[in-house]
Amino acid sequence: MTTTAHHKILIVFLAVFSLSLALSKTAVNVVMTLTYLTLLILIVRYQEYRRSILSNVNQPLVVPLLAYLAVAVIGITYTERIADGIGIANKVAGLLLVYFMTSVVIDTVRSTDEREKLTDTLLLIFIGGIVILDVIGLLTYVGIVGNRRFMLPVMPLNVRHIWSANLNAVGIYAAASFFLAGKAQLSQRKRKFLIVFIVMAILSILLSIARTAWLGMFTTGIVLTYLYTPKKRIFFSTLAASIAGCILLYHFIPFVHDRMNTIYTDIVVYSASGGDAYSSLGDRFVMWKASLKMFLTNPVFGIGTGDYVATINEYISTGLLPARMSEYNQPHNMYLFSLATNGLLGLGALLFIFYRILTTTRAVHIVSQEQRQLYFIATAVAIHYLVAGMTDSLFNIFILRLSFAFIMGICIRTLSVHAAEKRITS
Length: 426
Known about the structure:
Elements: H1 5-20, H2 25-45, H3 47-54, H4 62-76, H5 82-107, H6 112-141, H7 161-180, H8 188-207, H9 211-228, H10 232-252, H11 254-273, H12 280-297, H13 308-317, H14 334-360, H15 369-388, H16 398-411, H17 414-425
Helix pairs in contact: 1-2, 1-5, 1-6, 2-3, 4-5, 4-14, 5-16, 6-7, 6-8, 7-8, 7-9, 7-15, 7-16, 9-10, 9-15, 10-11, 11-12, 12-14, 14-15, 15-16
């Protein structure tokens, strides 16, 4: 069965969703709602379509994401701030809903060629949305848009610089995958588009002065080179070149030099004041220490899904933390946030998601060209989130949470995984 006219409606919604991820939270929520309503109507009305959808329900990441959601929901039962707990659980549910929507809509397309074409199109549209965001950011930087001429960090459409930088990193991995997969059908126009995007994205990441993204990209690049390079000589050459490039950036770009020097300054300020004086990294140390204190009060289950902010305020009122800590609703570390709120169960559920992704993509050398591209993206994004998540709670951030789910919905699907498994066993 080829893609029906009804299913094409869902594909259009998914394309609009892909474009909107970088640009509009409202549009993303509206399109996702319309997609699920349309999907429900088609399931109820057409028996054949219902069978087709139900046959694709068991997607590879559904169980890990359900486990993550279940832990968050269980944590609501013993949280004091139930409304806050529901808000956190709603964020986790968004991960599952976007992943499920993306993977099922793609896998319901029966033709392998049509699915491959659709995944490429969705990735290019996703990159296109980031291009629009970056163009606005660069226009803002030069003073054509807004009133932040030559001001750093660059924040297009008021998107926080850390968010846009990490989103650009995801876009770079997606764009690079087209070249690494050696796609013969990639036209010259698309090649030029992807090259321009990569250059623009790197510039945007630099201008974001977001060290979280810098660390994530550097580490991800090194790990990917190790995983995908058969000759270790190439790996060590790449490692040396990367370190040399970082040193050159540090010496010749003033704002990179300043941002890296701030790390030392922040540590000195924190050590001298014990966390009483503000510094970016110092405040993270204070929040991390507070999160560990929360975790130790209930190591297995945590303090409750919605009680992080309430507990921080309690620590402030008793003089354990400076008052400015009330400005943060998460500890800028996704592992410590899970440990604090949901204990070892929460951390285990979080890591289970990444374990499932990385164990699925480990056979990248013996799969098809299309699967190699998708597995490359999934591996890169997973590693980046694992690294960047050490200095920010990425799953608490709307644009990064849903982009992660969308990319995994494209890359880690039942039909792509089963196709890879068949190839491995044949």
